Amino acid sequence: MGIFSKMFSALKKTKDKISQKLSGLFSRNKIDDEFYEELEDVLISSDISVRTSMDIVEDLRDKVKKDKITDNDGVVAALKEILIDNIERAEELEIQTPAVIMVIGVNGVGKTTTIGKLAHYFSENKKSVTIAAADTFRAAASDQLTVWANRANVKIVKSSEGSDPSAVVFDAISSAKARKTDYLIIDTAGRLHVKANLMEELKKMARIVEREYPEAHFYKFIVLDATTGQNAVNQVDVFNQAVGIDGIVLTKLDGTAKGGFVISMCSELEIPVVYVGTGEKLEDIDVFDAEQFVSGIL
Amino acid sequence: MAVFSGLSEKLNHIFAKMTKKGKLDEYDIKQAMREVRIALLEADVNIEVTKRFIARVSEKALGQEILKSLSPAQQVIKIVNDELTELMGSTNSKLDTSASPAVIMMCGLQGAGKTTLCGKLALHLKKQNKKVLLIACDVYRPAAINQLKVVGEKAGCEVFERGQTNPVDIAKKGVEYASSYGFDIAIIDTAGRLHIDDALMTELENIKSAVHPAEILLTVDSMTGQDAVNVARTFNDRLDVTGVVLTKLDGDTRGGACLSIREVTGKPIKFSSVGEKLTDLEPFYPDRMASRILGMGDVLSLIEKAEQVITDDQAKKMEKKLKENSFTLEDYIEQFEAIKKMGNINDLIGMVPGLGNKMKVSNAQIDEKKIERVKAIIYSMTPKERRDPNILNSSRKQRIAKGSGTTVQEVNQLLKQFDQSKQMMKQLKGKRGFRF
After folding, report:
1. CA-to-CA distance for B265 and B240, rounded, in angstroms?
2. Most CB atoms closer than 10 Å: which of A266, B229, B295, B338?
3. A227 contacts B221? CB cut-off 8 A
4. Residue B106 sits in the same domain as residue B176
5. Do A47 and B221 make contact, defined as CB atoms within 8 angstroms?
6. Do B116 and B239 sit in the same domain of this protein?
7. Is A177 within the bounds of a domain?
8. Which residues are paired to A184 by β-bridges?
9. What is the CATH number of the domain that holds B194?
10. What is the mean pLDDT of chain B?
11. How near does any CA of chain B get to the CA of A216, in Å?
């Protein structure tokens, strides 16, 4: 992956403003309290959580003192290093096949679109894919997913609106087993993490995968919208407690939002970011790269 | 992780260190504002908006007299909350439906919840005896038209669609259709788009000039972060929206984005969307939103209620008693009565943020019947006993138990509780007002 990856160019749109702010900071050429305070603001404005931003600035203070850094370039390099360290606290995820990937998240973050892109991405890599349309709640969700399945040219298992999503999962597993599919991707209805009954439904779906397909490697991916603010941390926290999250897909990075909240998730919950969504086209997906992400938000 | 409701506690902590002063001085305010700043940022209020807000509130708070009935922390919260509420505008969910047909155009980012909101609005207006047409102009997202059709069917409204053709033409023809067939309202669903996507933003401008909407509603996900400012500003600059609708407010987001949006657009927030059913649409309540952003549950309504119920005189009397350590069972019962006047106890507990959650989790509901029993026990005592429970020997206790229809055990329990309350109050001695 070159330096001009999709992720990097997507983040580039926002980069200029932050860089400007930073260079404004550095132009004063004084690494004092005011500098650190403003740096904290810069971090917060990319949606890194308030606490994490404070911690990062504290770490930077220590590092600057310890390494006797006096110039701007040195400070930037130190900050980058700290951010990357934070992200890399989460171990990179290696997906093994046969894999079942259950895609979860709150409403409107881009789950269905992400699944279309993932399906395309895997089949481009010469792997077989089956999609399970287990969002039986939202109006026309399975129609939407069918369009994506056709675009990516993969098989889809679906049922009628309002039917039991666990039944769709069950059927999709039999189909995936019979066809020896490398990847079974399960779409789920968007749900707010505060709705206890919907979280139970999700747990049930996960149990069915574990029971019916024990030989598969089971991954739960949460999709997070880069436009989201501090609530993303709550989302991950609750979903993680309910079913255990193996990876994050960060979507809508082609806007002006930066999704800095993933840094807290990597460092505190040690959940890695796996993929990023960078547009509305089938191929607008990229593998997450810590260094490029940090360069992108700074 | 995300610490909810910490603000009032933190402010209390700051002010606890101060000696009693009649006015808020610069140092106090600076200390307090540091916490307010964190609260706002954690609620996703934009950082620039936060800075301006803090500056304004600090100015207002400086030198303000602390009201008799409030602690300094409450005073600061009151100033912050009043300012927030004012910024948030008034409750105004009126839609301009005077034209015939009145065109309502939706816009927003992908996944904000426009299509669902179209259905909710349609139903809302239908209930006002309006004939509503839904126009499907999202020709990009797969199955968006189908989704609108399903939503329309649920709301019992006709959907106008021309497949995946030019959205500007569809809008124009849809509105023509609405006026020929006697529809009162035409709601246009548009595709979600990034505010920086110039081609698609131009498309919205073209739809606008083709159909002259009476309302252009910007739909915003209440979970939006710092970027809300950029999104709202761009949509408003290009379309001059007439109002904002906040969606997904049934989650646990503090929703600070709406403050940012108000600040940069000055446009009213007309509705909040609070669930997945078509009926889950509410007017926007600025005061509720303010305490939500501060992460304080309904603490403010609690303060208000306490203020209404406990008169200044009563408060003074209580303070004196505490100082003299002459708090008796008679006062104890008076307090119960005052609390009862404030409403259902379980509701009250729900209003105290941190406490409410803890109580719910442990399922430790306060039983109002128990309070009735406590009252019965106290009323079965002689006035002398009430003033000095120390004289209660076992035969007196037996009499009281019989008289109140309880047991000696329960009488003992009450006495123990009373002692504990007294201890607690001793610790609070010297502090003013209700602490929370």
Report:
1. 9
2. A266
3. yes
4. yes
5. no
6. yes
7. yes
8. A100, A130
9. 3.40.50.300
10. 82
11. 31
Interface residue A138 vs chain B (CB under 8 A): yes
Nearest to B225 among A13, A47, A137 (CB): A47
Q: Which residues 184-203 on chain B approach chain A with CB closer than 8 angstroms?
A: 194-196
Same domain, B153 and B131: yes
B135 and B205 inside one domain: yes
**Whether residues B110 and B231 fall in one domain:** yes
Whether B361 and B393 map to the same domain: the answer is yes
Task: Give me the DSSP letters along B43-112.
Answer: TT--HHHHHHHHHHHHHHHTTPBPPTTS-HHHHHHHHHHHHHHHHT----------STTEEEEEEESTTS
Q: Which residues of B touch A141 (CB under 8 A)?
A: 143, 147
Q: Best of B7, B157, B227 to disrupt the A interface by mutation (most A CBs within 10 Å)?
A: B227
Q: List the strands of the sheet with B185-190, edge to edge.
A: B158-160, B132-137, B185-190, B102-108, B215-221, B243-247, B269-273, B281-283
Contacts of B428 (CB under 8 A, 6+ apart): B322, B435
Q: Which residue of B has its CA nearest to A52?
A: B1
Q: Do B227 and A47 touch (CB under 8 A)?
A: yes
Q: What is the CATH number of the domain that holds A143?
A: 3.40.50.300
B229/B244 Cα distance (integer angstroms)? 13
CA distance A267 to chain B (A): 12
| B110 neighbourhood in chain A, CB within 8 Å | 108, 110, 252, 280
Q: Can you tell me the mean pLDDT for B224-228?
A: 95
Q: Could you tell me if B221 lies within 8 Å of chain A, comparing CB atoms? A: yes
Provide, as residue numbers in chain A, all residues whose Cβ is less than 8 Å from the Cβ of B251.
Answer: 106, 192-194, 231
Residue B331: partners with Cβ closer than 8 Å, 6 or more residues away: B318, B321
Bridge partners of B160, per DSSP, are: B135
CATH code: domain of residue B329:
1.10.260.30
**DSSP SS3 for A200:** helix
> Which range marks the domain in which residue B54 is found?
6-87
Nearest to A231 among B140, B142, B252 (CB): B252
B33, B52, B87 - which closes a domain: B87
Check B1 against A227: CB less than 8 A apart.
Answer: no
Q: pLDDT (tens digit, 9 = 90+) per residue, B128-182?
A: 999 999 999 999 999 999 999 999 999 999 999 999 999 999 999 999 999 999 9
Q: What is the pLDDT of residue B169?
A: 97
Beta-ladder partners of B104 = B187, B215
In chain A, the residue whose alpha carbon lies closest to the alpha carbon of B51 is A41
CATH of the domain at B70: 1.20.120.140
pLDDT digits (tens, 9 = 90+) for A108-136: 999 999 999 999 999 999 999 999 999 99
CA distances from A87 to A92, A182, A240, A264, B188 (A): 10, 29, 18, 8, 43
Q: Give this complex's ipTM.
A: 0.89
Do the domain assignments include residue B93? no
> Of B294, B321, B354, which marks where a domain is finished?
B294
| A292: in domain | no
Does residue B266 sit at the A interface (CB-CB below 8 Å)? no
Domain count, chain A: 1
3-state secondary structure of A275: strand
Instruction: Tell me, yes or no, whether B150 and B280 share the same domain.
Output: yes
The H or E element containing residue B160 is strand B158-160
Q: What pLDDT digit, counting tens, does each position of A66-103 carry?
A: 999 888 788 888 999 999 999 999 999 999 999 999 99
Residues B132, B272, single domain; the answer is: yes
Q: Which residues from A are below 8 Å from B250, CB to CB?
A: 192, 194-195
A 188-227 near B (Cβ less than 8 A): 192-195, 225, 227
